[in-house]
Design the sequence.
């Protein structure tokens, strides 16, 4: 097996790569591939940015959803009844 | 508005002593946060309402053991996540027989080379440029995409990438191996990325 992995192999292991789960040889192979392949570079770059993007996109909404008040009412009834 | 710390301490003391009104005043400012954390794990609003109710009961029960070493809101939030995971465990047994789908990667040719012409600009750059991350539509898109992930895959993504838990803790809570955690994470991230990419490419600014 040559040092240079295929696109498929890079994309299959992209999360392990980003999470620091690969050994030195595998890591270097992917790094080399990413220098030469724009498609995989964009793919891995996108994955790297996903968590931060998701955190902002799925942040706390400004209004408290109505279901949460119903849940509180129900919980208070049980608490007052000595549940 | 959350109460100032002193007022919160007093509410906690009164709630522990059995004052239900104090408990209500204590948790009310954090309801949105608690509900939010639960809903992200469970996806379904009805399940989330039930889990929140159980979580509030658990907070009330555990309150005497709250030592004030963390903020009440973060302590309560953890109790809520645990309640959500309990509800998930109870309902997942049925659904979980995980259909093994491949992660959203490729397409590749027979030698494993990427077939698609690479986009000039990665999706996240376009999305940031248009301020999409802050917009309601991307929130909706994200929630819908999360909803289509199998429960176990979504739970891993939420705990790892939104709640910043480490893989070992997630593995313990979900009763799976750390390798399975990373497998599910890969599946979740690639699926979400594929959705966002399509949206940014096909989408209007
Ligand atoms: Zn490639």
Sequence:
């Amino acid at each position: 097996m040559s040092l240079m992995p295929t696109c498929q192999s890079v994309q299959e292991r992209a999360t392990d790569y980003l999470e620091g789960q690969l050994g030195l040889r595998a890591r270097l192979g992917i790094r080399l591939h990413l220098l030469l392949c724009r498609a995989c570079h964009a793919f891995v770059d996108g994955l790297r940015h996903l968590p931060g993007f998701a955190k902002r996109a799925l942040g706390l909404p400004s209004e408290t959803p109505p279901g949460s008040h119903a849940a509180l009412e129900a919980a208070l009834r049980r608490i007052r009844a000595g549940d | 508005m959350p109460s100032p710390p002193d007022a919160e301490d007093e509410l906690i003391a009164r709630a522990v002593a059995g004052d239900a009104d104090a408990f209500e005043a204590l948790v009310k400012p954090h309801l949105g946060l608690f509900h939010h954390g639960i809903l992200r794990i469970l996806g379904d609003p009805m399940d989330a309402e039930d889990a929140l109710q159980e979580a509030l009961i658990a907070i009330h029960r555990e309150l005497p053991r709250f030592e004030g070493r963390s903020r009440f809101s973060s302590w309560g939030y953890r109790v809520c996540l645990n309640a959500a995971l309990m509800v998930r465990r109870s309902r997942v047994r049925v659904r979980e027989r995980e259909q093994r789908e491949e992660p959203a990667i490729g397409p590749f040719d027979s030698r494993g080379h990427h077939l698609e012409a690479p986009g000039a600009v990665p999706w996240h750059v376009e999305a940031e440029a248009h301020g999409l991350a802050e917009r309601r539509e991307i929130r909706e898109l994200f929630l819908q995409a999360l909803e289509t992930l199998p429960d176990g895959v979504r739970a891993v993504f939420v705990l790892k990438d939104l709640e910043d838990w480490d893989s070992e803790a997630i593995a313990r809570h979900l009763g799976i191996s750390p390798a399975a955690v990373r497998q599910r994470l890969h599946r979740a991230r690639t699926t979400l990325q594929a959705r966002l990419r399509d949206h940014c490419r096909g989408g209007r600014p």
Summary: Chain B touches chain A through 62 residues (CB under 8 Å).
